[in-house]
Amino acid sequence: MSSLSPIVRAAGEGDRQLFLGGGLHTWKLMSQDTGGTFFLFEDTMAQGKCTPLHHHPEADETLYVIEGEIVVDVDGTKHVVGAGGVTFTPRGVRHALLVRSETARVLTLQTPGIGQAFYQGASEPSIDGTVDAVDIDRVRASAQANPRGIELLGPPPFDDVSST
Predict the structure, then answer these.
(1) pTM of the predicted protein model
(2) What is the average pLDDT value for the chain, to the nearest integer?
């Protein structure tokens, strides 16, 4: 029998964090909630938000687009993914994303939950629901402090976007 406790969270429930790479996270299930099996969060992002090219050395990442439209670059190939679409990026595969629609909401699942430490180091409690605050220095510092969860590889691989 599992030593984990059941958890039920309604829409909007969870730890709301301002991710300083751009986006408002609602951390739905933390690694400690799942015995380290996974980390699950909802990410609300504004148009133009993008990630640097990166990979997760020890975690697989699944994105489910709830609302809006994103472009994902996976190993140099770009894909447009709209509401109801899903991506799966195995550990070690280079990828990035760009929000094309006015806003996008994405559910992110990382397995195992090792990447959580990176997000904790690059986030702060949300006070006003802001989605577009960026502090790339803090994001880089958290990535360097958590190399098992993420490695930043370079600028976003999108022609019309500056590095964030």
Answers:
(1) 0.92
(2) 94
